[in-house]
Amino acid sequence: MKISKAEALQWFTLLSSLPEDQPLTPRQQEIVWAVLAQLESAAEARRDALAAQIPGLKTLAGRTAFVGDEKKFPRGCKSCLFGTGLGAIRRTNKCNLRCPFCYDFGQLHSQEPVGEGLWEIGGTRFYDRDLDLLFSVDKKPSGVCYVYLEPFMEIELYYPVIRRFHQEGVWQHMYTNGTLCTEENLRALADSGLDELRFNLGATDCSDKVIANIALAAKLLPHVGIETPMTRELFDAFLEKKDAILGTGIEFINFAELHLNENNLQNYADESLYCCRGGYISPMISRELTLRMMAIADREGWPVCVQDCSNMTKFARDLHLRAVEGGWFGASSYGLEFPEIPVEAFLPALSDPEVVFAEEEPLPKGYRPTDPVW
Ligand code: SF4
């Protein structure tokens, strides 16, 4: 069904007014999926037009897109997309910031602890003294990354674990907002064997302090880059400080397509959203700004690799992970991050004149908003 935008708006307004505990009928679900497909096509058309303006746009085996020097493509991402997968290690349950795009926005004070002295690796809890056992039993991963809030809140705990993984030759990368970095802790991380440090520059709107810390890290650690969600604020702040940022010595920049969950949706409620392959829900503008930034990077020949870490990259990542885990054909953990499709959240997109449904046709009988039986 190529539902028209006008009828899509009528339907979604109606469905948004239904009581929360009233499940959608199969016919209403068909309407919802028809609208999501139209929105996704509209988003894809806009970004295809932007991508066509980037002569140097390349892909890595069709799994992700980038511009710039392929030799600087982060090895942590290669491990994620082509190796044994993401390999997340969780430890710290606190952060010193409150970013509006954070997946834990509004819940940052109440994140469950992993447990005293414990590390969550592959969903299982370990003491660092258990790592010998783990390495003796399991196949070594091509890479691991330290995720979960802000590791520099207790960075000294990380050194022995990083050292142990380094002894095994496992590539390790870590994410930080960069506000708590010092020469001392960066040097200790380098001495322990951390391979790659990634800064979330959007967390501080590209603060001078964090840019200085990135430059310091780039001197001390083998590989340093930026990984940050792309938002309107980041786009403007980045361009304002572009020369200083590119002068830090970073190798790569991953602009992540912002996706929303129940925690951060309210902060982007006015944006035109779309849903990618029935999974992540994102502001359309996020990936468009990434493509616009990549066009600038390509035109100006930035000395870094700039990656489009989009929802489709995450889709490819999750497919790859299940494939290496021996999952069935097509298995993936990629999916919707809401208990139900939040129809109300798409009303701004359906009222946005810039969102164009390329093809529209009348709804079949029985599917029109005015039809009595649904
Ligand atoms: S720095 Fe990271 S963990 Fe902390 S609030 Fe921002 S996005 Fe969340």
User: What class, by secondary structure content?
Assistant: alpha/beta
In terms of per-residue confidence, which ranges show pLDDT below 50 for 5 or more consecutive residues?
none
Q: Report the sheet with the most strands, covering strand number, pairing sense and barrel closure.
A: 11 strands, mixed
Strand residues, percent: 5-15%
CATH superfamily of the domain at 78-211: Aldolase class I
Please tell me the overall pLDDT.
95
General shape: globular
The CATH architecture designation of the domain at 78-211 is Alpha-Beta Barrel
How much helix, percentage-wise, in residues? 25-40%
Return the string of H and E elements: HHEEHEEEHEHEHEHEHHEEEHEHH
Rg, nearest Å: 22 Å
What topology, given as strand order, has the largest sheet?
A: 1-2-13-10-9-8-7-6-3-4-5
Topology:
Blueprint: H1 5-16, H2 26-51, E1 58-59, E2 65-67, H3 75-82, E3 88-90, E4 118-121, E5 124-127, H4 131-137, E6 143-147, H5 158-167, E7 171-176, H6 183-192, E8 196-199, H7 208-220, E9 223-230, H8 232-240, H9 242-246, E10 252-257, E11 273-275, E12 281-283, H10 284-300, E13 305-309, H11 311-324, H12 347-350
Parallel strand pairs: 3-6, 6-7, 7-8, 8-9, 9-10, 10-13
Antiparallel strand pairs: 1-2, 2-13, 3-4, 4-5, 11-12
Helix pairs in contact: 1-2, 2-10, 5-6, 6-7
